Structure prediction request, 245 residues.
Amino acid sequence: MRLDGKVALITGGANGIGLATARLFAKEGARIILWDVSPKGRDVVDDLKSGGVQAIFQQLSVSDEAAVISAVNEACEHFGRIDILINNAGITKDRTLLKMSSQEWDDVISVNLSGVFHCTKAVAAVMKNQNYGRIVSASSVVGIRGNYGQTNYVATKSAIIGMTKVWALELGKYGITSNCIAPGFISTDMTDLMPEVVRNQMITQVPLGFWGNTEDVAYAYLFLASDEARYVNGVCLNVDGGFTR
Prediction:
């Protein structure tokens, strides 16, 4: 198993890509720390534990720095270490620039950008003491290409690529790698609600001709979190069927 004995912290793990990642990592031998604002995360962890996986759920928002620090300390008391951090939590509040409120800007920045900063800072301190760690954060193809009506979201996803490169420089000497992924069109419960005509129009931009699924992203997380990627540091891996090229 590719993550045998490792302890993996996954933010936004109650649904979608985070849920698929938690299940895959558990299958690959990891012990799971699952964070989410939704209490559904408790059901996810209960399901994992029923299958013999060591797992805990901590309900919090990554935008709350004090809660993040407290949860990291509690998780370390439980498992003794944290080997992998998957910065997966994120939200959208889309609106064009001239209609976007300061509150909509701040809300997305606080979760998608400040939340990644809070989590990585707290966990990197643990990893430094271990002289080992894998940090993988969620960017997006829109962070590379931009997207109409997503000033706030695109700002965060572009920034994550830059922060990833900084952390690769700063943390590499402690045995910690820092990478990110940039998913493209991925089928989730939310995107499945989009009108079929819109989905079909979007798919014409993907050379492979189909939408990805949550497992496609989870496997990318798995590679970068594993020791197979021990010499991969500071990269952004596109998971988009060739959309960004």
